[in-house]
Design goal:
The chain has about 170 residues and is an all-alpha fold. The chain is elongated, with a radius of gyration of 35 Å. It starts with a helix and ends with a helix.
Amino acid sequence: MFQQDNVGQKIKEYFKAQGISQRQAATMLGVTQQVVGSLLNGKSFGKRMAAKWHEVFGFNPAWLVTGAGDMFETEDSQKESTAKKNVAEGADAVASEVLRLITTGELYPASVVKAKDELIAEKDKEIQRLNRELGALRNELGLRDKSALQSTHAGAGAEVLAELKQ
């Protein structure tokens, strides 16, 4: 808790130097003043809340969560964060475009997609048929095992009766 108290105290000092009140910070973050107050008074930052404070004020999210490191990200880590964000945004854009091309038939003709869907449906039916067949075979095997077990017991009973009659 000591590190979180230290984090809260340093943020209070920063807000004072910047002329930012808890109420103003709460408005900027889209939370209540009570949430800001509890965080400044030692409540632990979660990852989501740390990310929000980073987005609004530029605080280092790792520092907010752990109390270790620098209050603000260094230029290198900001560049790395920006690069990761750009890569993620680019990947999302590519995925969206590929999906659009597939659904409009520009990447794969609709006939190819339809043929693949039909093949998948056929294979699903075959799998269902094989599962039913497998279930029937398991039942048959279970009945055979019971029958064999009963005949073994019946045979043993006959032997005992024969011995008793002697």
